[in-house]
Design a protein that fits this description.
With 232 residues, the protein is an alpha+beta fold. It is 47% helix and 6% strand. It is built from 8 helices and 4 strands, in the order E-E-H-E-E-H-H-H-H-H-H-H. It has a 4-stranded mixed β-sheet with strand order 2-1-3-4. Helix 2 packs antiparallel against helix 3, helix 3 runs parallel beside helix 5 and helix 4 packs across helix 7.
Length: 232
């Protein structure tokens, strides 16, 4: 049973997944993607499966991902196998997709150059995105200062999804000062970044050194120190 993911690369242990790169803001792969997923309006990801299965919305793809994780559970990506932990994993993934990423995007998307999809770059919108993002991240920091993992005692899909979404903020708006002040999130992020299946797809993560409003210069460092992260 083979699935094809259209969008940015992804991987998880034990799951057969082919990948087609699509980067809408750069016009990469858009024509083929829209021909296969006309209702997507060019938004990624898209998932193509057996028997003509084609899905776009992240929630639908997440549902398939949870199914695949359940039947290929070498990495125990849904937790310890109980329905309770599986529900907790889904809850964190829903929060990341519905709250964290859209809020962060209000802050960082206007800073991405050469976008083919214009966004609201007004000062008021960016300021709102920044304030709301920092509030969400503060709540997450509190949780991760008390817990090594989002759910249970090992990495799950929730950890991966939250960390990858946070990487977008780290690349564009969450500078060194913020990282120094949020040790829980950064310890968790480094732990996910050092996990083998993640490193296969994203060997290094770009980070900004100074928040916009300072020099505005982006770091040339592409990698993190992926030594053994501290446990809580």
């Amino acid at each position: 049973m083979t699935f094809v993911l259209y969008g940015y690369d992804a991987a998880a242990e034990g799951i057969q997944l082919d990948q087609v790169e699509v980067i809408p803001r750069e016009g990469i792969g858009n024509t083929e993607y829209l021909s296969k997923f006309p209702l997507s309006r060019g938004k990624i990801p898209g998932l193509e499966g057996p028997d003509g299965l084609r899905l776009t919305e992240t929630l639908a793809i997440t549902t398939i991902g949870l199914y695949l994780a359940r039947i290929h559970n070498q990495a125990q990506l849904l937790g310890n196998g109980t329905n309770e932990q599986a529900a907790q994993v889904l809850s964190w993934m829903s929060w990341a997709n519905e709250e964290l990423l859209p809020t962060l995007a209000l802050w960082f998307l206007p800073l991405i150059p050469f976008s083919l999809d214009p966004v609201d770059a007004s000062a008021a919108s960016i300021a709102h995105g920044k304030q709301a993002s920092l509030s969400l991240l503060s709540a997450l920091e509190g949780h991760l200062m008390a817990h090594t993992y989002l759910v249970g005692t090992h990495l799950t899909l929730a950890d991966v999804m939250v960390a990858v979404y946070i990487s977008r903020g780290l690349e564009w708006v969450l500078g060194k000062q913020w990282r120094d002040e949020n040790a829980g999130i950064m310890r968790h992020f480094q732990m996910v970044a050092a996990w083998g299946p993640v490193m296969e797809v994203i060997p290094s993560f770009k980070m900004i050194e100074q928040l916009p409003g300072g020099t505005g210069e982006k770091s040339t460092q592409d990698s993190l120190d992926l030594g053994n992260p501290a446990s809580s």
